[in-house]
Amino acid sequence: MKFILVRHGETMANIGKIYSGWSNYDLTEKGKLQIKILAEELKCYKVDAIYASSLGRTMETAKEIARIIGKEVVANDNLREINFGVFDGKTAKEIEKNYPNEWKTWLNDYESYRIPEGECLQDVLNRAKSFIDSIKEKDGTCIIVSHGGVIQSIITYLLDLELKKMWHFQCPPGGYVEIDYTDNFGYLRKLIPSYI
């Protein structure tokens, strides 16, 4: 399977440095332009399926890609961003002020510390793995439209790396990553930032 992991276009939360997990923030004008350019770039691939997180920003991105390449979008909740729980909708400064103990604990153990009313990073990886495992041995090419943390987690899984290695990869809004997965081995082929 060839995986094309696409991050949604820039949102108001991205420019405001707001932790947005399951809450939705609109795409900026730049974000809307990013996905139009991205969709044109991706039409060179022979795509068999498009999957997307069910959140608004990813669905808007996926639908634009689908419109250009002529495929339907299949929404999947396992591709959602981390549930930031009580951190959601706040900047780092606001979180540190309102939840100092939780913030410190999460920074020291983001893999396994479950944010109150939310998730830990291992939860995100587990649900992403469940989805990836259901399709990774198929032939063809799929586009997965998701979020920064989810994409980084999927990269570590497909490349057989520890989860903490996710920080070595960054897929910015409107960017994408191409990974070929064959015989239980992942090859990172491209990591393309946004064109604007």
UniProtKB/TrEMBL annotation:
It holds the Pfam family His_Phos_1. The keyword Hydrolase applies. Keywords: Hydrolase. InterPro entries: His_Pase_superF_clade-1, PG/BPGM_mutase_AS, Phosphoglycerate_Mutase, Ribazole_CobC. The keyword Transcription does not apply. It is an enzyme of class 3 (hydrolase). It comes from the Bacteria. Its EC number is 3.1.3.73. PROSITE patterns: PG_MUTASE. NCBIfam families: ribazole_cobC (TIGR03162). This is Alpha-ribazole phosphatase. It comes from Alkaliphilus flagellatus. The lineage of its organism: Bacteria, Bacillati, Bacillota, Clostridia, Peptostreptococcales. The gene is cobC.
